[in-house]
Amino acid sequence: MLTRPHRFRCVVLVVCLAICSIPAIAQEDHDSHVQRGREFLGLAPPPDPVAAARGQKLFTQNCAFCHGANATGAEGPDLVRSTVVLHDESGDQVGAVVLNGRPDRGMPAFPSFTRDQIADLAAFLHARVEAAVNRWGYKLLNVVTGNASQGKTFFDQHCSSCHSPSGDLTNIAKKFEPAELQAQFLYPSRSKTPTTIDIKLPSGEHIHGTLKKIDDFRVSMWDASGEYHSWSHDSVQIQIHDPLAAHQELLALFTNADMHNVLAYLETLK
Ligand code: HEC
Ligand code: HEC
C-alpha cells in the first residue's frame, strides 16, 4: 500500500530532474524530511503492503468501531500516535494489548487472534504511522502559518524545562530555514544526541556506551573506545538513557495547529 506511492514518487523525481529543477527540489526536500522522520522514530523498512491490506480488513471488522477507520481514534485512542504502536515490531507490543485487552479501561481482549493475524494488524497500524510521517513531510513545505503567541504558551508548558529562548535557542531562526527548523524540533538529530546505555556485568563491572540495538533477546552497543559489544538480555543489567525520549513523546502530543504555532514562535527568535 505504501511502497507503491514511494516508488511513484521516485519516478516523478527522476522525470522532474530530467526536465525541470524546481519541482525536483521540492520533492527532494519532502523526501529528506520523510527520511528524517523515519530515522528519528526508528522505523523499520515500510511494512509489507499485502500484510497491511489483510490487517486493514481485520481492523475494519474488529477495531475501527472504537479506534476509527484510519486508526486515528474515536471512542478508543488514536493508534497512529500511540507509543505502543511506535515501539512495536511485527506485533510484539500490539499483540499483548490485543490478546489480553485492558478490560478495566474499555479495551476488550481478542484472545482468538493468531500470531499471523496480529502481525497483519500491526502491519496495517505501521502503514498508518508511515502515512502520518508522510503527511507531516508535506506540511513541512508550507509552514509558517501558525500563531506565535499560542506557540509561546505551548513552548512555556512543554519545552521550557529543557530549552530557553535566550539560552540554547537564541537566534535559532537565523540558523535554519523554516522547514528545516520545524524538522529540527519534530525530529532532532539522533546522531548528534545518541541514546546511551549502561551495562552492569555479573562481575559488577559497568560498561558505558552508545546503544546500537535492543530487541527482546539481545542488546548491543559501542563503548567509549569504539569497541562493539553484544549480550543476551538476561545476562546483564541494562540502563538506557535516551536524551530525545521527551521529543518522541511530544510527537504524540502535537496537533497540527500546535506544530505550526510553535514554529511561528521559534521564528520570532532571531
Ligand atoms: C470497544 C472498543 C474497542 C475495540 C473494539 C478495540 N479497542 Fe483498542 N482500545 C480501546 C480503548 C478504550 C483503549 C485505551 C485503553 C487504555 O486507556 O489503556 C484501547 C487501547 C488500544 C491499544 C493501546 C494503545 C496505547 O497506546 O496504549 C492498542 C494497540 C489497541 N487498543 C488496539 C486495538 C486493536 C488492534 C483492536 C482490534 C483487534 C482494538 N484495539 C479494538 C477500545 C477498543
Ligand atoms: C526533556 C528535555 C526536552 C524537552 C522537554 C524538549 N526538548 Fe528539544 N531537545 C532536547 C535535546 C536533548 C535536544 C538535542 C540536543 C540539542 O540539539 O540541543 C533537543 C533539540 C531540540 C532542537 C534542535 C536544536 C538545535 O540547535 O539543533 C529544537 C529546535 C528543539 N529541541 C525544540 C524543542 C521544542 C520546541 C520543544 C517543545 C515543544 C522541545 N524541544 C522540548 C531536549 C528537550
In N-to-C order, the SSE pattern is HHHHHHHHHHEEEEEHH
Hetero compounds: heme C
By secondary-structure content and strand pairing, the structural class works out as alpha+beta
Strands, count: 5
Oligomer classification? single chain
Low-pLDDT regions = 1-25
Number of domain modules: 3
Account of the 3D structure:
The protein is of the alpha+beta class. It has three domains: 141 residues, Cytochrome c-like domain (Cytochrome Bc1 Complex, Chain D, domain 2, Orthogonal Bundle); 64 residues; 47 residues. A five-stranded antiparallel sheet has the order 4-3-2-1-5, with no helix packed on it. A hairpin with a 3-residue loop joins strand 2 and strand 3. The chain is globular and about 55 Å long. The relative contact order is 0.12. It binds heme C (HEC) (2 copies). One heme C binds next to helix 4, helix 5 and helix 6. The site of one heme C has 23 residues, from helix 4, helix 5 and helix 6.
Sequence-ordered SSE layout with sheet pairings:
Elements: H1 3-19, H2 22-41, H3 49-62, H4 64-67, H5 83-86, H6 92-100, H7 115-140, H8 148-158, H9 172-175, H10 178-186, E1 196-200, E2 206-214, E3 218-223, E4 228-232, E5 237-241, H11 245-253, H12 256-266
Antiparallel strand pairs: 1-2, 1-5, 2-3, 3-4
Helix pairs in contact: 1-2, 2-7, 3-7, 6-7, 8-12, 10-12
Bound molecules: heme C (HEC) (2 copies).
